[in-house]
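Supplementary Note 3. Input sequence used for the single-chain structure prediction.
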Amino acid sequence: MKNYKIAIQGMILATALGATTANAGIYVGLSYGQANVDDNTVAGPVKESGTGWKFSGGHDQLFSEIFGFDTGWVDLGDQNERSATKAIDMETEGFYFMGTASHYFNKDVSVFAKGGVIFWDQDLRDTLTTRNDSNDGTDLAFGIGMQYGINSVLQLRAEWERYNTAIPVSMFNVGIALKF
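The predicted structure, written as discrete structure tokens, is reproduced below.
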């Protein structure tokens, strides 16, 4: 819980800093996608995908025309594996904060890379053995993506992100962002 309080305070501070700049790069967004796990370290292989989503906000030109930040809440869905000897369910979620670097091809199309941290919580359940593990922590997160501005307010985004939690999860997502 302590990590979530720190993350919330960071989001508030980052939003306040973004609101003081002259650039109109502040945005909020909602994305939906597929989260994938490929790990052999806990109770055998978990190689499944689930539906994930995230709520994000940030500023794509906070420090210059290139550098900004992205922060938000991500739910990486439920991944599971079923066999005769095991039934594993895994859920991962958390707050993230990442610095961004963008390259604009024109006023509507850009690509970006980002890196930072995730304050995560991960639950793993084996329903055949009633084994339950719950982990939380702070680890690295990074991603790449592109965005297309439909108009001066609405953007379409596509991203791939990697969250290095206890059992790492990657997510490809598409979404919209509203720019202020």
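The first helix runs from residue 2 to 19. Residues 17-23 have pLDDT under 50 and may be disordered.
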